[in-house]
Structure formats: structure tokens, C-alpha cells
Design a protein that fits this description.
- The structure is a homodimer.
- The first copy, chain A, is an alpha+beta fold.
- Chain A folds into two domains: about 5-325, 2-Layer Sandwich (BirA Bifunctional Protein, domain 2); about 335-420, Anticodon-binding domain (Rossmann fold), CATH 3.40.50.800.
- The first copy, chain A, has helices spanning about 5-25, 40-45, 70-80, 125-140, 155-160, 170-180, 185-195, 200-210, 215-225, 230-250, 295-300, 315-325, 345-360, 370-380, 390-395, 420, and strands at about 30, 35-40, 55-60, 65, 90-100, 110-120, 145-150, 215, 255-260, 270-280, 290, 305-315, 335-340, 365, 385-390, 400-405, 410-415.
- In chain A, the strands form three sheets. In chain A, strands 1-5-6-12-11-10-7-9-8 form a nine-stranded mixed beta sheet, with helices on both faces. A five-stranded mixed beta sheet of chain A has the order 14-13-15-16-17, sandwiched between helices.
- The longest helix of chain A is centred in the first third of the chain and has 20 residues, at about 5-25.
- The mean pLDDT of chain A is about 95.
- At the A-B interface, helix 1, strand 1, strand 3, strand 5 and helix 4 of A face helix 1, strand 1, strand 3, strand 5 and helix 4 of B.
């Protein structure tokens, strides 16, 4: 784990503020699920192997608890137990999550995520809404060179069934291998498919399907050609048609491609899924991702409610911004430092400090009673742009010196006017 | 543990924003220590009994880890290992902490704190700075009816030594009992002091000292009368004199009282300590508190550096604000809902949604293709103030209806002018 230093916090606060503004603009209401969940809840859909990837422990009452590994599970668990909320329910969160991974580039054990979820409708309209909020989140921090890759797990599942991959276990393990298509060498992929019980012919068919990639129009017409009669595939394909139509109304279809290899790693997804990548930043991993999980809520509670959602890592966005150098100028030091020329004006200097702060000016001063030279050195090392120097002689006339630390120019100003001059 | 609901988050975001503004105004730089610390770090000064009060566990590598119980320990551990930071070091944080307590009124297992720390000076000037940032934090959220009760642990310790309570263990356990003075019945207090090995006479002397309470001037002159020659007491008393002088320069002395019974519960404090209470809200507990811990950093690392700091619970402030009903009006729902009168204008309605959002207006719409009546019901249940109704006839002329949900009045407006009308 790591401490987050002031320079990074200043950036994080800015990024989260920009994303929060977008979430509000889309009508999502901010909440925060508890950071500590029952281990059962965390395992519900992802299975007990999730234990290996998270922080979990028994509390003093002997209950197994775990730190949340994402925000989706907690939001779904909450909504599933709340019969009072009118549908659709649009919730969002920006908060911490923890994974017990080997720390590696762009993956931390403690990280922050933004997350927006829509409960209560199976319409791809909601998926489009989630995809657009993701796009606007990126654009509102200044990332415009991205690509969203969309697919429908239902389509891939229907295809697997169609070619004879039929048991739940086989389908699930095939999906896990598909998720690794771009990351593992072809021989290893073939081996993994083989372990799931797929024949050579089936493997080729899956690989061919997953190589379909391009504009929604192109992929949809290709799919129309490939699957003319299969009604299961047809339903899944219709969802992608509807999605493309809605994205067009929202003026966003051009930023999306349909990519049949995208299935997402997490087990709870069961419909439209997508991942966004910062162009030229594939090594960072997906910069947001999400999808539909219509069957998750039923596992958690009283309310069987369809759901879809999108989430992204704050740290990954920050890495992308760092690379593209598009952060705005962020100030994380005070605007002015009040220095005292001699120790006999300390009390008066403190009064000036209190007055400036009262008017809302970020003001610092010397807590160590150092010489004027040392005070200026400190202000300089903190990159504080202005220093007010309180001296006995000027003070008697109600004046002080104002020093611009960049130009090193000094001028006399009325103490009452300091605020105006900054 | 509990989920934080949208209404509460909206308030929390506001409160934290107000406090964050004050922290910046005072020149504190925001950081965040890691949420998971080595158990050793958490136990360093508080002792192994802290295990009973926190969440801790062994990770897969067999290391004992714990969730932070405050922000001070992590900030001190970080500063103690950073030789590069120029002194004084003023850091702050607003973040989560966890305690494994029985949940009770105004105390949660997962809570948020704001925290401001000053490293690098023993001067009570720094303690005054910390106290003032606490006061301004309260005032900036609108809490003006508070009292800050200040003491010096060094003074109480010097007094204990003077009356013959001399071992470290005796002094520590006497301080723990003093911290409970206002909460436990007198017989139990006497019993606890007795267990620490204090004689009846010593107990009376301690109780008398701790009953000293009043304006700084009054308490200081009383102390001058009581301890004329003792140099240890004198040093501690001089710190309180200096503190009162600085608080006066800052224009804040009138909001403080000196109260010799205040010693704080946490083991790491070793100088000036204080607690603030919302008037009439003593049941909430202290609304901020802090003090000096000059010897903590040396335990953690390479840098033996004096320190003082202040912290407060966000939830406690929120309870106080709720009671005094001084929250500003906070909007956590969208400003406008775009309804479609019939299903043949859906695509056009979505275009209006996208346009409004693009200009930054928080906009929601129907994700379920419901009737106009149902859409209005939903917008009403979400307390959205305006509904734009897109109808085929008006649309052809470039118009829509704007409905004020409170007055229930409708008027026709140009679609291009919607934003201006909201």
C-alpha cells in the first residue's frame, strides 16, 4: 500500500470533481456502499476463488468479512434489499476498493473507482446511457482520444451453444479464455479452450467469431449474414441493433466499435459488455468498462431487478492525463505567506494572517520565528507566489511590503488593500 | 457497517467541501495515508490493547495488518520517514477510518474524519494554529455555538509528580482516569485512582486540580497562585500563557476556556490538548479534538520531529447540523426531466437530453418507455423541479412544453431556449 502525496491528491480531487459533475449531469445519485462486506456477498457471483484476490478476515464475532473489490457488488446488494426505491434506480459512487494483487503498473492494492449503475430496465437504452456517461467522464477530464469496444455476452453464449458448447461450466470457462484472447499467445489460448473441452473445429469457430470487429454498422451486417435463422442469436443481435440506434440519437455512435472478443473478466456480467481504451495507452488496461448483470440482484435479496453499469479507475485516468500532459494548473500551496521582518511585529503579523484567512485567502506564515531570509526561503521552497512582509516602520503608517516571488519585485501597499492586490 | 444513502452523501460532500476550503485557507496540504497499516505501526504508541478496538488480520504473506483507526498515526509515520520535506510540514486529510467498537450514537465502525497536522515546531503558536483551524472548520459549516476546552498534559503530569505520583505507569493510568472524570460516577473514579496506587490525599489533590476551569486569564492566574516555585509546572504553565497570547492575536481567545480535566484518551498526546463541544450537544461527544505528540515520530522512523494536530468526525458535525437545521438547500436530483408524450418522438427526446447535458444541465429521462403520466409521476417522486415534454406537434415547430412541477404550470418554449428557462 502507499501514501497519497499532496501533488497527487490535488490531481485526484480535480479528476473526481470533473467526473462527479458528469455523473450528476446524467441524473445519477451519489451513494457509498459499506467498504466491509460479508464474504458471502463478495463471493456470491464471483465464486469462492475471489478469496484469493481480496482482503478478507474473520471479525471478533467470527463472521467472515472482506474489503470490497469493486463498488458494483455493494450497490447491487443494497438495491436488492430496498423495495422502496422507485424504478429505474440510477446510483453512482466514487470511492476506494481493495484487491490483493501483486502490485503492477496501473494496478494498485488500494485504488479509487468511479461507478454508475442503472437498476430496473433490460432496455439497451440503459446500456447506452452507461456508455455515454463513461465517454463524458473521459471527455470532462480532457481525454478525447479513446475507443469504446462493445459486445453482447448473450450473443457469444448463444453462438457457443449453437456450435455445441452447451454446459454452463464449459461456457463459463470458454468466456474466461475469450477474455484473455488479446493477452495470451495463440498456442496457450488453444490449450485453454482445449481444457474447457472444445474441439479443434469449435475453437476455430470461436476464434473467427471473436475476430469480428469494426463499426457497429459493419459488424451488425456481418452478423446478419452469419446468423440468419437462430432465434437466440437474433435476440442478442437485436439488442446490439437497438444499442446502435440509441447511441446514434445521443450523437455518440461514431466513438464506438463493436468487438466480438470483448466479454469482460468478472463473472456477474450476462448481456451487453464494453471496455474503453485510451488510444496509445493499451498498457494501462481499460480506462472504463462495464456491462449488464440482470441476474445478480436476485442472488442478494428480495428484489429481482435487471441492472447495468459502468466503472473506471481514477488512478488509470490520472496516468493517462499525466502522459498526455493535459492537467490544468492545480494550486496546492497557499496564495500568500505573511512574513515578519523582526520579532517585535509578530503579533501584528498574526493579526494580518487572521484577517486574510477570514476573507478566504489561503494564507501561511512562519511557525518557527525564523529570520526574514529564512522565511522567504521557505515561502520559495513551497512555491507560494506572494509574500507580505510586515515591518515596524511601514506598519506604523498602515502599510506593508508585497513581494512577487516570481519577479522578485517589491512594492508598498496598504495593509487594508492586501487582498485586492493578490 | 452501513451504506451511505444519497441524501447523506450530498450533505457529506458539502460538509467536506466547506472544511477542505478552511484547511486550504490555512495552508495545509492535502494527502492521504494508506488505509491499511502494519499492525506494529498502529500499536506503536497506543499499545497492543488497541488490537481489541480495530480491524486487523494477517495477509497472505503472514504479515499482521490493520485498518487505520485515525489519520494522525499514518501522517506521523509518513513524515517520520521523509527527510526531504522542508519544516514546518503542514498536512491535512479528509478520509475514512475504522474502529471495531460496539456501534452507538454518533460512533460508527466506519467513519470519516478531517485531520490537520503540523510537524516541526514545539511552539504553542502551532497549537493555536490547529485550534483555530478547528474553529473555522466548525464556523464554515455554520456551527457557531461551540466551546473549546484546552489543557496541557505536561502540566497535569508535572502536578502528579509534584504530589508523589511518579512512575510512568502510575501517571499513565491516572491520566486515563482523569479522561473519564465527566463520564463516570465519583465512587468509580475514586476506585480507579485507587487501583493506580493513589492515596486518598493524592486523589483529592488531583480532583481539585482538575476542577479548575474558566477563561484563560482566570485559570492562568489561579495556576500562578497555586504553583509559584515548581519549575516543571512553570514550563507547562508558560506554554499555556503563550497559547493564550497567540489566540488573542488571532482574535479567538474568547471562544476558548482552559479546563484542567481535559487530557484526551489516546496515549500519544504529551503536551497541549483540547476538545471542542457543540453547545447543547455534549451527548455527541467532542466535535473536534487534538493535541501535541512530540515523541510519536521518533518511534516511526528516521526523523525525530515535534508535532501537533487536530481532527474531527464528519458524521458528528452532520448530526450537529441536522439538530440545528442549518444545512443549506442541497440538490441531489437532476434539474430537469425530458419526457416524451408519445413513443414516436423518443429519438428526438434523447437528442434533447444529450444537448442539455452537453451544456452542463443535470438532466434525466425515461429509461423504461412509460406513458407520459407515469413519466411525470416518476419525475415528481424524484423531486425534479422541471419537466420538458416533447410532443410531435410542438416538435415540428421547434417547440416543447416546459412544466414547472411545483406550480404545475406549463408553457411552450423553443427547444433551443430550454437551457435559458431553467
Amino acid at each position: 500500500m502507499r501514501d497519497i502525496e499532496p501533488q497527487e491528491i490535488a490531481k485526484r480531487v480535480w479528476v473526481e470533481g470533473q467526473i462527479s459533475e458528469v455523473l450528476q449531469r446524467y441524473g445519477f445519485r451519489m451513494m457509498e456502499p459499506t467498504p466491509i462486506e460479508h464474504l458471502d456477498t463478495l463471493e456470491a457471483k464471483s465464486g469462492p476463488q475471489i478469496r484469493e484476490e481480496i482482503y478478507w478476515f474473520a471479525d471478533k464475532a467470527g463472521r467472515n468479512l472482506g474489503l470490497r473489490f469493486d463498488l458494483t457488488v455493494g450497490m447491487a446488494r443494497m438495491v436488492a434489499n430496498r423495495l422502496d426505491l422507485p424504478e429505474p434506480i440510477k446510483l453512482c459512487a466514487i470511492a476506494d476498493s481493495w484487491r490483493y494483487d501483486e502490485p503492477q503498473f496501473a494496478r494498485y492494492r488500494h485504488f479509487r473507482q468511479w461507478d454508475a449503475e442503472i437498476f430496473g430496465t433490460t432496455d439497451p437504452l440503459a446500456d447506452a446511457e452507461a456508455i455515454c456517461v463513461g465517454m463524458d467522464a473521459l471527455e470532462n477530464v480532457g481525454l478525447r482520444e479513446y475507443e469504446v469496444r462493445i459486445n453482447n455476452r448473450r450473443l457469444v453464449e448463444a453462438f457457443l451453444r449453437k456450435i455445441g458448447v452447451e454446459t454452463r461450466a464449459q461456457i463459463d470457462s470458454a468466456l474466461i479464455t475469450i477474455d484473455k484472447l488479446s493477452r495470451l499467445p495463440p498456442t496457450q489460448i488453444t490449450e485453454e479452450f482445449g481444457k474447457s473441452g472444445l474441439s479443434g473445429e469449435q475453437i476455430e469457430a470461436v476464434k473467427e467469431l471473436c475476430s469480428l470487429r469494426g463499426s457497429p454498422e459493419k459488424v451488425l451486417s456481418e452478423l446478419a449474414r452469419l446468423f440468419r435463422e437462430d432465434t437466440n442469436v437474433e435476440t442478442a443481435r437485436n439488442e446490439l441493433i437497438r444499442l446502435a440506434d440509441v447511441l446514434k440519437s445521443f450523437g455518440r455512435r461514431d466513438r464506438c466499435i463493436y468487438d466480438l472478443s470483448v466479454v469482460r473478466g468478472i463473472g456477474y456480467y450476462d448481456g451487453i459488455v464494453y471496455e474503453a481504451y485510451d488510444k496509445g495507452g493499451e498498457d494501462i488496461g481499460s480506462i472504463f468498462g462495464g456491462g449488464r448483470y440482470d441476474k445478480l440482484c436476485a442472488i442478494y435479496g428480495k428484489r429481482d431487478i435487471p441492472a447495468t453499469g459502468v466503472a473506471g479507475g481514477i488512478e488509470r485516468i490520472m496516468i493517462s492525463l499525466e502522459r498526455s500532459s493535459i492537467y490544468p494548473k492545480l494550486r496546492e500551496t497557499p496564495r500568500v505567506f505573511v512574513a515578519s521582518a523582526t520579532t517585535d511585529v509578530l503579533f501584528e503579523a498574526w493579526e494580518v494572517v487572521a484577517r486574510l484567512r477570514k476573507t478566504g485567502v489561503a494564507t501561511d506564515f512562519d511557525l518557527k520565528e525564523r529570520s526574514l531570509e529564512k522565511q522567504l526561503e521557505y515561502a520559495n521552497s513551497m512555491r507560494i507566489p506572494y509574500v507580505v512582509i510586515i515591518g515596524r516602520r511601514e506598519l506604523e503608517r498602515g502599510f506593508a511590503k508585497l513581494r512577487d516571488m516570481q519577479s522578485r519585485k517589491e512594492k508598498e501597499i496598504r495593509i487594508d488593500d492586501i487582498q485586492k492586490e493578490l
